[in-house]
Write a structure and sequence with these properties.
- The chain is mainly alpha-helical.
- Helix content is 74%, strand content 3%.
- The protein has helices spanning 3-20, 27-51, 81-101, 109-129, 133-142, 144-154, 160-192, 197-202, 210-226, 236-242, 245-270, 272-298, 303-324, 327-358, 363-366, 370-373, 375-388, 395-411, 421-449, 466-483, 486-492, 496-500; strands at residues 58-66, 71-77.
- The longest helix has 33 residues, at 160-192.
């Protein structure tokens, strides 16, 4: 049996069973069930990948879905999607593990919440594995509704109206973006006569002209909302601030990657000619997002909102890498997406631990001297911050460094199909400014919380139980990605020519 299909179906079946049997399951059993399913999915994906021949799409399956419309259940994974699939399964397992010691309020709430997380896992696998544009769209939309429930039902307990508003804003933004994307997909269908991604990719630059540019604009706008690209990021800070830890981690680590993956798999690979036309705009908006998000972080007084805005900046580096349309830029985009997933998950797990103890994530309430008050939590928070600001040897360094390198090569005229030399030079300076500002706001946050004269509080308890285990797993992942980047790059690099085939 196809391992990818089983990995896709397993969490969906688990979600159904959790809903049907929720009255018979304890909170801990439901949470551990989610952990088990996520780990099983990760193992299935790993075994399926290792067993593949490394040529084209691994575990490809192509079944007729709607014959009259030529729609297919067409799935497969390559070096671009496999690292994102593994990161998604890992983060989902950790999210469920966090619910073991921190169940949501309400009767039978944990089975329901874990069931929604399993739906998100299925939808995310579907997006990363879909080789049919309509199938991609269906899974893309499937992830939205469970996340609305996660934020609106289990978000900030002290601000019920605020969490529903944040959830609704998230839904409206992403639904409008999806509608634009669907218009682009239909236009591609009308131009090429197929929605099969491998067939569209094989056409190379043949899909061109005014209507192709229109389709690319619609697709780029739709995916930019999910990424999010400035100024379409306005839904993100409130969604993170009001979401529970589960929601914040899934939004940052998984949901944003659905957008960046779509830019690679659909925009660049399927519409290479229009992608070249849009690349300068994508690069410019990405760099503006890096700088604006960093400036916003310098003004934040809430830790969760600070991390949320930092995600806008980090996604700006991903978009900049894509905009270069170079091999090193594409590699940067994939690696930075995976690294951001594990680093930001660690940050949000820590922010969630602090909010659970203090009832808020406001820096003034958290107090100073956390090194003395909660040493393990403080060290992990500092470690995650250094990784996020791009300290060499940690996961966050390589993706941003490669994006900067790709932009530099474009500015020097040695490479860069997407950016002109003058624009690339300007974007490089802007991105470097963003790097400096990123260091500034993280160091400011660490100085305000970890250092100084301790301000003791009744909630000063250190990491324990699942919190400690989750921290260990993510710290190891950050170190492995930082010290042995070839584990990811060796998988990604063989698939890059297929993405850039018509864009060079």
């Amino acid at each position: 049996m196809n391992g990818l299909v089983v990995a896709l179906a397993l969490p969906a079946v688990a979600a159904l069973l959790l809903v049907v049997l929720r009255g018979m399951l304890t909170d801990r059993l439901a949470a551990w069930s989610g952990v088990g399913v996520s780990v099983a999915v990760a193992l299935l994906l790993l075994v399926t990948w290792v067993a593949g021949d490394g040529d084209g799409y691994t575990a490809e399956v192509d079944l007729v879905w709607v014959r009259s419309l030529d729609l297919h259940l067409h799935l497969g994974m390559d070096g671009i999607s496999f690292p994102l699939l593994m990161m998604t399964a890992l983060v989902t397992a950790l999210v469920c593990w966090a619910l073991v010691d921190d169940p949501p309020a309400g009767d039978n709430a944990t089975p329901a919440l874990v069931g929604l997380v399993m739906v998100v896992l299925t939808a995310s696998i579907g997006v990363f594995a879909a080789l049919d544009l309509v199938l991609f769209f269906v899974f893309f939309e499937l992830a939205l509704i469970p996340m609305w429930f996660v934020i609106a039902r289990w978000g900030d307990p002290l601000d019920r109206a605020g969490r529903r508003t944040a959830a609704t804003r998230f839904l409206l933004y992403t639904v409008v973006g999806s509608a634009l994307m669907l218009v682009g997909f239909v236009t591609v269908w009308a131009l090429a006569g197929t929605v099969q991604i491998p067939e569209l990719t094989a056409l190379g630059g043949q899909i061109d002209g005014g209507w192709a540019l229109f389709a690319a604009c619609m697709i780029a706008l739709g995916l930019a909302v999910k990424t999010p690209v400035w100024p379409l990021h306005l839904w993100l800070p409130d969604a993170h601030a009001k979401a529970p830890t589960v929601g914040s981690v899934l939004l940052a680590a998984v949901f944003l990657k659905l957008g960046t993956y779509g830019l690679l798999r659909v925009l660049v690979a399927v519409l290479p000619g229009p992608a070249r036309d849009l690349a300068p705009w994508l690069g410019l908006l990405g760099v503006v997002g890096i700088v604006v998000a960093a400036l916003a972080c310098l003004r934040q007084v809430d830790l969760k909102r600070l991390i949320a805005y930092s995600s806008v900046g980090h996604m700006g580096f991903v978009v900049l890498g894509i905009a270069t349309l170079t091999e090193i830029g594409i590699a940067a985009a994939v690696f930075a997406s995976v690294a951001h997933g594990v680093v930001t998950a660690l940050l949000f797990f820590n922010a969630g631990s602090l909010k659970r103890r203090f009832g808020t994530a406001e820096l003034s309430v958290l107090g100073r001297g956390m090194y003395a008050r909660m040493p393990a939590l403080a060290v992990v928070l500092a470690f995650a911050s250094f990784a996020s600001l791009g300290l060499p040897g940690l996961a966050g360094f390589w993706g941003e460094m490669m994006a900067l390198r790709g932009t530099y090569e474009a500015a020097a005229g040695t490479d860069g199909a997407g950016l002109g030399e003058a624009l690339a030079a300007v974007l490089l300076v802007g991105a470097l400014l963003g790097v400096l500002l990123t260091s500034a706001y993280f160091l400011r946050m660490l100085r305000r919380t970890l250092q100084g004269v301790p301000t003791p509080h009744d909630s000063d308890t250190d990491l324990a139980g699942s919190e400690r285990g989750i921290a260990v797993v993510l710290v190891v992942a950050v170190l492995v990605l930082g010290l042995v980047p070839g584990l990811v790059m060796g998988v990604v690099e063989p698939s890059i020519p297929a993405i850039l085939g018509g864009a060079r």
